[in-house]
Amino acid sequence: MMSRKRVSLGKRLRHCSSVDCVGVQPNWSDYPREVRETIAQSSIVYYPSRLYEDLFRSLGKRVFPQNYYGFMGHKIRQTALFQLLHVPHPRTRLYYGSNRSERIMRDFPFPLIAKNPVGSSQGEGVWLVRTAADLEAYLDKHHPAYIQEYLPIDRDLRVVLIAQQVVHAYWRMAPAGEFRNNVSRGGSISFEDIPQKALDFARWTATVCRFDEVGLDICYAHGRWWVLEANMVYGLEGFRRRGLDIYAVFRSLDEGGAL
After folding, report:
1. Which range has the top average pLDDT, 97-101, 117-121, 173-177, 234-238?
2. Packing angle between helix 132-139 and helix 100-107, nearest 10 degrees?
3. How are strands ordered across the β-sheet holding 155-162?
4. Could you tell me which of 259, 214, 224, 219 has the C-alpha nearest to residue 78?
5. Is 49 left (phi over 0), alpha (psi -120 to 50) or beta?
């Protein structure tokens, strides 16, 4: 019989003594009866998975993290959320239908940023479009088109937040000849001279967007901070270089009552 603890389907909290991690089963009936009863009696379910999140919400249960699975890798939804909440975000538009190139060139000057709107990460699926020919090559393979204004930056800031608390942050600086700052694309990391205003901005963004766990990419341009993207699945290189164990971070947050 399971103890009367909080319950998590995902394994993020497996080192937290106050949480029972039961895994994600493809069929509800695959869970033993006592596990199903524990989940049914829990007021909150942690890391419920894409499969069960909406089900638990429909039953009136709280889930943690909020605004997680539905925004994971989904730039269209993220952009709509940022726009709805007036979170500073590079001007972005979606284009469907015919005459897309003409409409895009009417709305945006070159260079511009074009992205795969769903599913890409680590700098994949992002293009710096300099000419009409570049744009046609992108449009030939992407429906809809996700077009964003180009910001003249050589670095951005990755801020990881859990339960709206900053866990760590670092600059990501692009290598020579590369417009993307991703570490996976050869970008370098620096923990030096991180402005408190940037961390405050990231914390505010995570709070208003109700992101319980997120790696925010933010940058400074034209005299203000901008959110570029929200990453629900983020790399752990920053944790390693900072000497942090992500599971120890969760354990500390749990023991401190933040979760």
Report:
1. 97-101
2. 130
3. 188-190, 165-173, 155-162, 213-221, 224-231
4. 214
5. left
